[in-house]
């Protein structure tokens, strides 16, 4: 996955590379044009100087022949030869490729020449001046190397500038991101976002703060409603159970009415369990269980096994436990007891008759594995009222309570399904 900050850097690098590649032939043409222009000017100045010297002195044809021979040996680029009438001829510039024994690369050189005509002692002569020109392939190689070096310098500069600019410009964004990552709606904390002088980030922070503020308000209203509703339902539910028990004990109740009253007792018991669990969740979320003490996990698990002993015997479950001493936790006693009892109750409820349950405490974790057929849906596993059991007595809040208690103490709860066993683990 690519970072947003690197995307413009890649675009800049590709754009710089394309511009520099296109600039290479342009540089070669410009340099070659300047070089040729300078050589033409040099040839012209040399020609004027030579003409003045030849015309200002008296030379015999033999002297001119000797001068031409000396030039041919010392300066092959300059020659003077006798010619016919040149009245109709004008100075001309040419370019030629000639062999050069001193060129070790390809044995050839490129020359730029100037031909002019003059009279010496009344006789017409042709004077030729040639100068070696730097070959285009050498210029191309030199420009390419220099361009590549500048491209490397550009890349290094882009990377350093991008890091420096992004470090300063995006610092408020990363601070905001870390604040959001550390924020927990359930812990009743405020979201503190950093101040910034960048308009876009300031608008982003204001939008996030308004969003979080609305969510906190809605969350508090939801918690308050859940707690109040659960608290207010306690008395009516208790009255209903009491009246129902009185009706069942009446002497004149017919078998049909007795069966009807018994059928009402099961959903009423589930309603009572749901109400109790919702009230417990509300209290945990409101941090009402703040008393902490050092507790031994193994002792509380043994107490939970004793509590569910009849339930285990009724279903004829085979329970094996390896409860090593030494795993302690700073926790509220009631919450630790509730966590372990819900884990065990969940394992018993989801195990078919004559099934197996394995309880293991080792290191800093406790795990409960119970036999099963199919894996549970992990996307809805810890959601409220998303019960995977068909047991009508189940409130659908047991795993949600486990998750909420674990979140309060920063515990890690994991679920796996291996070898036809559901396994819940809590890492303390």
Q: How would you describe this protein?
A:
This protein is α+β, with helices and mostly antiparallel strands. The protein is built from ten helices and eleven strands. The chain has a five-stranded mixed β-sheet. α1 (6-56) packs antiparallel against α3 and α7 packs across α9. The radius of gyration is 49 Å and the shape is rod-shaped.
Amino-to-carboxy terminus distance: 33 Å
Overall pLDDT metric: 82
Q: Which range best describes the helical content: under 10%, 10-25%, 25-40%, 40-55%, 55-70% or over 70%?
A: 55-70%
Share in β-strands: 15-25%
The biggest beta sheet reads: 5 strands, mixed
**How many helices in DSSP terms?**
10
Radius of gyration: 49 Å
Layout of helices and strands, plus pairs?
Elements lengths: L5 H51 L4 H14 L3 E5 L9 E8 L8 E13 L2 E11 L2 H34 L1 H12 L16 H51 L5 H31 L7 E4 H11 L1 H6 L3 E6 L4 E4 L1 H17 L6 E7 L2 E7 L26 H11 L3 E7 L2 E7 L1
Parallel strand pairs: 6-8
Antiparallel strand pairs: 1-4, 2-3, 3-4, 5-7, 8-9, 9-11, 10-11
